[in-house]
Each structure stands twice: as C-alpha cells, then as structure tokens.
Amino acid sequence: MLIFVQIAAYRDSLLGSTLRDLLEKAGNPENLRVTICHQYHPDDAFNAELDVYRDDDRFNIIDMLYHESRGLCWARNLIQQHYKGEAYTLQVDSHMRFIQNWDTVLINMLVSLQERGYPKPVLTTYPPHFEPTAFEYREVPPNQIVLREFDKHGVYPIGWPAEIPGWEALTAPVPARFLAGGFAFSIGAFCQDVQDDPHLYFMGEEINIALRAYTHGYDLFHPHINITWHYYSRRESPKHWEDHAAIEAVELLAMDRLRRFFESGEKTSGYDWGIYGLGKERTLRDYEEFAGILLCQKKAQPYTLKHLPPPNPRIYPTEQEWLDSFCCCVNNVLHIPHSVFVKDDYDQAVIAFAADKRIVHELELDAAGVAAMIQRQFDSYTLEVGFSCSHLPDSWILSLHSASSGWEKKIRGRMPYFVAGLGNFSIKKCQVL
Questions:
Q1: What InterPro entries would the database entry show (predicted)?
Q2: What average pLDDT does the structure give for the chain?
Q3: Rounded CA gap, 82 and 183, in Å?
C-alpha cells in the first residue's frame, strides 16, 4: 500500500534529517511516495542535502525560489496536485522525527477505525517537541488539541496541545475536534477531497481543513500514542513572514476570506468557493454541534472549554437553550501604555470588559497585582487575562486607585482581537480609545 507523503519546506535546515528519519524509521520505505515543495534561497548551504533524492523514483521535488512562494497553504496545495491515487496520505512538516515502523503503526490504526465504522478517519495531533541536537526517544503523554481562545482577529478558534487524560490505559485513538496541519494521516483521497485553500496564508488553515473535512464525511481522531515529534521553535531557520513584505496585509485578506466562509458557507456574493467549499455529507451546523463551537459568534460550550472529548452531548430541548449554552473564552494579553500610570502609589485597579458598551466581566487587582503588571515592561505594560463570559468583549476599561488621590479617570482600550472592518485594524497592539 503506497503512502503519498506531503512536505512543504521553507528554507529549513532540518529537511534533510527529517527525510532521513522518515525513511530509516519506515517499515516499508519502498512504499513511500514523497512530494516536497522545496522553497529555497540559493545561498542556503543545506540545499545540497536534497541532491541524494533527486534520482530516487520515490521522490518528487518541486524547487521554488523563496521569493516566489505565496505561503504555507499555497505550497501545500501545490503538493496536492501531484497525488497519483496512493492508498494513504501523510502530511508532515519538514522538521520532524518518527517512531520505528511509523507507517505500519499508522495504517493499522487507520484500518482499526474503519473496522469500527469510520470509513474516512483522519489521524492528527500536535506532536511533542524535540530538540534536534539532543533527540532521544522517551515516552511522553500524547496530545489532544483543545480550544484555547479565538485569534487576535477574532475570526477562528486557536487549538492548543494538552495531554490526553488517561492516555496510559488507552488502546485506540480518541475523537478530535481539531486538525493539525503539521501531522495528518488519512486515506489517499483526503488530499483531493479537502485540498488546502491557496488563498489562505498560514493562520486559520487548520480550522478550515477540519471543518471542510468533517462536512466531507471525514472523522478526526488523535492517536493514543506518539507517532512523531515536532521542532516548534526553529530558532535558526528563516520564516516566510520574515522574508516577505506586507505579510500583515496578506494575512488580513486571508482572515477576511475565512470569516466570510464561516458566515455563509458557500453562498457569499462575489465568492466562488469551488473545491475549497464545504462538503455535502454534513453541514457547518453539524460540525458546530459536534465540536461545541459557534464559529461566527466566537463562542464555545463549557463542555468544550473543559477539554472533554467530542461529540458534545445534545442535552438541550430547544434550539434557543442550545444557543444559550455557549459562552465566549478570552485568553489575551492587554497592552496598556506607560503614560497611563502617572503616580507611584496605585494600590487597586478594576478592569471591566465590555461588549457593545455592556459590561460582561470584571477583574480586580490589589496592590500586588498592580505592581506585578507594572513590572512587565516592554513597549507597554502588559496584563494576561483569561475568563469566559456571555459575549465576546470588544473593549476594556481600566480604573486605577491612588492611595493619595483616590480613583482616577478611566482609561479605555480595544481588545487585541477586535475586528472592525479588518482593514482599519492594527494587529500589532491594542489601541487606546
């Protein structure tokens, strides 16, 4: 059974070692068909590491000068055009390590899910981290992907790795809400049915694929054991957004496309989603019920926020009661200008969070809390906040109390993710109103 391996690599010094490990750890390396989108700079010394594979019939290398690259989703879509009917497909990043016989393990895991009644399963997760200079196999908890927050644009849910509860006793994969672009294994048709949308840039890719996969009849699962490891920091490798100008504008356009997709599925005027639209086997609402997330409203059910496995239980007798069960999750960093703090004797602060001018949450700080916030100095004072509430706040209101003069004038600011006509919003930091 052939495996179509997809690897999008951008000026990555670990690509060569990833390919070596991929082959050495495979039980049947002769069954691999590897397509690489090699986005390179001519001066990168490690480019020559690919030469050993150029005459290997198992490899298809798409060489692309770095300045011609349009981003991760575009590169992955380019790779998917080279699918030739292989039985399985594996999408991984170019900085990975693998367990022994990873291919056999994944195929057996996928087949076991098919035998349980899931004809189109997808195995996916955020693998544990490894350091290239000191990698050694050791047993660590496998990860599930949980909801952390919505992104800074307020458009899509951000997944986060968290230990699978009770993993030591598990003998089979567990259901998943989210998909990881850096590790996904499925039947080969997956890379035809659910191709990466090349109009997206980087962020938002994973929820786009997860939603479309679910509506195409695919079921997501997290492996109950670790199959791969991922190098997350990549300190020594250039990033696409570092090499290209005006990336913020590109990302904003991509976020606008993703937002419109969530709002209307496939029927927004002026947008022809084509093969990048929803499937026909399930609906967007089916996914929202399964995952316990309202994509347009940026809300989640407490069951989801507790990191409990899907599908979410449908225990509400009416549609309105089901809708009322959702709340907003906020995990953000507020940036407060230095100029706000004009005295040195603040002993209390209250930060109120408002949605459409209505207070939805309040946070109180004592003298120690105020002092801790002031100590975190960058280009502004920063405060990490995390809470859930009925409506997603668009602004915050800071009230400071001075021991010498009492309560001072309130300071107002926008939440970092607040979207008001995307094009007018700076994603770099919060704006003071």
A1: Glycosyltransferase (IPR021067), Nucleotide-diphossugar_trans (IPR029044)
A2: 88
A3: 19
